[in-house]
Amino acid sequence: MTESILRLGAEVSVVNRDHSLYEQIGRYLGASDIPGLDGLHRICFDGKVVLLKENDFRTLSPTL
Hints:
single chain, mainly beta, 5-stranded antiparallel sheet, 5 strands, about 0% helix
């Protein structure tokens, strides 16, 4: 899954069992634009933005 495949606003779910937000559903906000945090993606959960690795989440809504 890369940022070019995901559309902004897509519903995503946390699939990493070790993450505190496991099975929570959020909205994809795009790749991190913070220097030094390349490879992380911004996901919004109930108004809070969390940075997640690509392998920690998957999309629930269509990507096209």
